[in-house]
């Protein structure tokens, strides 16, 4: 019997092609998969070679994410997630932020992720796509995995920073490669989180590139988010706070499985019915870019206001006018906002006009402008305190 050759991974992968696999004379030749390339890239990050300004910025993102979580500690969705985490604690691997309670790895990631996300105050990526459309997400949504897995593994601070940088870089590389953002295609921007969870956990647990590739395949093939958690025309709800952490946790769990030899689809991005085919409407819509001159994480931006990212500019401008002219509510007959197409579609649709909960209010250009700026002169987390006289 003729012996079949093993798959050959070719280094130097630079892009996707229509023909990914060649079969000839009983020999299978396969290009390096996208996830294998991402895995090798993630494993190549070393603290000693990360520029000092990048390390400094990563530490700032750590602090920013923790501050967001502490600020959201008393919110009802945060309390619910912590209650469930304690009830299903299992092995005490990682600490709930703001408590001394240790819970299982999965429960810590979900509960802490809900707190990081709740205020809509954590950092964000934005990549211009076609007119009126952007690709983006919140890279700090991956940090609950860094905190939890690093604690479980008793990792050093340097190792945690390496893992976090890997998560931020993979997210940037993936979003930059999308021809369009995920949300116009109907999927949640957090659908990239399984890849980050696998990379972060793989680094901190000492997985090799093959294991990390399988971890990405396991997590991504079993966890993708519907865009309804962040969709125009829909009232938001508590699910908005855990969408990213649910998908992040699947990548972490994938790494735990892969560390014991469990396998997943290595071509989960470019393969038939994979990520690019299903979420991007075609493998040709995943277009890897040359690496930028600086790290992708340097493109992440912290928010000035606790609201959706594209609201930041008009809110700041409105606030400046209020201060400059000492405007009072009785001085204002009407407000007209001229906004980008993205902001109008995402924050100005009818479902956002009269928000009944915090999750909808922080995405409502109507609410945050009229109440947050014009009536109160500022927009802070307490601006979203529920009105006790109303019932959602």
Report the CATH superfamily of the largest domain: 2-methylcitrate dehydratase PrpD
Q: For the record, what CATH class of the largest domain applies?
A: Mainly Alpha
CATH architecture of the largest domain: Orthogonal Bundle
Kindly name the structural category.
Answer: mainly alpha
CATH topology of the largest domain: 2-methylcitrate dehydratase PrpD
What's the helix-strand series? EEHHHEEHEEHHHHHHHHHH
**Total number of strands:** 6
Distance between the termini: 70 Å
Q: Count structural domains.
A: 2
Sketch the major β-sheet.
2 strands, antiparallel
| Uncertain runs | 1-29
Helix % is: 40-55%
Strand order of the largest sheet: 1-2
Task: Give the C-alpha Rg.
Answer: 22 Å
Number of helices: 14
Give structural notes.
The structure is a single chain. With 392 residues, the protein is mainly α. It folds into two domains: 38-299, 2-methylcitrate dehydratase PrpD (Orthogonal Bundle), CATH 1.10.4100; 309-384, no CATH class. The protein is built from 14 helices and six strands. The protein has helices at residues 34-43, 52-71, 76-87, 105-118, 143-153, 157-177, 193-205, 209-221, 243-258, 275-279, 312-324, 341-347, 358-361, 365-375, and strands at 21-24, 27-30, 94-95, 102-103, 125-128, 134-137. α4 (105-118) runs antiparallel to α5. The longest helix is centred in the middle third of the chain and has 21 residues, at 157-177. It starts with 20 loop residues before the first strand and ends in a 17-residue tail after the last helix.
């Amino acid at each position: 019997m003729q012996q079949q050759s093993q798959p050959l991974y070719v280094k130097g992968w630079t892009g996707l092609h229509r023909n990914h696999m060649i079969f000839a004379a009983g020999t299978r030749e396969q290009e390096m998969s996208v996830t294998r390339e991402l895995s090798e890239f993630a494993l190549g990050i070393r603290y000693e070679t990360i520029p000092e300004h990048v390390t400094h910025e990563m530490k700032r993102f750590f602090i920013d994410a923790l501050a967001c979580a502490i600020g959201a500690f008393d919110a009802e969705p945060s309390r619910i997630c912590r209650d469930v985490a304690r009830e299903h604690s299992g092995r005490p691997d990682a600490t709930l932020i703001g408590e001394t309670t240790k819970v299982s790895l999965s429960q810590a990631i979900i509960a802490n992720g809900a707190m990081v996300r709740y205020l809509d105050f954590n950092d964000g990526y934005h990549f211009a796509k076609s007119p009126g459309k952007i690709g983006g997400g919140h890279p700090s949504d991956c940090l609950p995995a860094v905190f939890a897995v690093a604690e479980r593994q008793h990792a050093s601070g340097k190792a945690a920073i390496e893992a976090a940088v890997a998560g931020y870089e993979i997210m940037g590389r993936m979003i930059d490669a999308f021809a369009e953002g995920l949300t116009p295609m109907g999927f949640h921007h957090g659908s990239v989180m399984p890849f980050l969870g696998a990379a972060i956990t793989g680094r901190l647990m000492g997985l090799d590139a093959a294991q990390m590739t399988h971890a990405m395949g396991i997590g991504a093939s079993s966890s993708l988010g519907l865009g309804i958690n962040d969709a125009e025309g829909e009232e938001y709800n508590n699910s908005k706070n855990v969408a990213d952490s649910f998908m992040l946790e699947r990548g972490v769990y994938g790494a735990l499985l892969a560390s014991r030899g469990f396998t997943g689809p290595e071509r989960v991005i470019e393969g038939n019915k994979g990520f690019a085919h299903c979420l991007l409407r075609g493998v040709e819509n995943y277009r890897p870019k040359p690496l930028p001159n600086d790290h992708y994480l340097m493109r992440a931006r912290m928010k000035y206001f606790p609201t959706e990212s594209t609201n930041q500019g008009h809110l700041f401008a409105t606030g400046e006018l209020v201060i400059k002219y000492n405007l009072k509510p009785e001085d204002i007959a009407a407000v007209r906002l001229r906004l980008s197409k993205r902001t109008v579609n995402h924050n100005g649709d009818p479902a956002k006009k009269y928000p009944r909960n915090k999750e909808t209010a922080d995405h409502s250009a109507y609410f945050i402008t009229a109440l947050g700026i014009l009536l109160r002169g500022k927009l802070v987390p307490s601006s979203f305190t529920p009105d006790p006289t109303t019932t959602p």
